Amino acid sequence: MLRLTLTTEEYLQLGDNVKIAFLGGTGKHLRIMVDAPKEVNVARGKYIEKMTTNPEERAKLPRYYAEPETPEKYRRKKNIIIHDTRIGAKAH
After folding, report:
1. Phi-psi region of 47 (alpha: psi -120 to 50; beta: other; left: phi over 0)
2. What number of CA atoms fall less than 13 Å from residue 33's CA on the CB side?
3. 30 and 22 in contact (C-beta within 8 Å)?
4. 33-79 tens-digit pLDDT
């Protein structure tokens, strides 16, 4: 699986005829646009899961889970400047 970070209005090209554009988002919601020929089936995972009633077929469906947070030792340290109440004094 490939994990990418995109900015607003960037897109992914899949093959010669499918484009997925990232339109932005808020909180946990993302907006994308899929530009694909009519012959290409595009369906939400929730819909596929809902329509798959056979337990054996349902067990074969792919599952994707959010990655856990990066452990503290691998995170970038942020430069935090704390202003002292004394005139002109700074502490880092």
Report:
1. alpha
2. 8
3. yes
4. 999 999 999 988 888 888 898 989 988 887 776 666 777 776 666 66
Are 46 and 34 within 8 A, CB to CB?
A: no
Question: Tokens for 52?
Answer: 């798959």
Q: Is the dihedral of CA 33, 39, 43, 47 positive or negative?
A: positive
Q: Higher confidence at residue 14 or residue 92?
A: 14
Separation of first and last alpha carbons in the chain: 41
Dihedral (Cα; 66, 67, 72, 74), 10-degree rounding: -140
Q: Is pTM, for the whole model, over 0.70?
A: no
Q: Which amino acid appears at position 71 of this protein?
A: P
Q: Which residues pair with 32 in a beta bridge?
A: 22
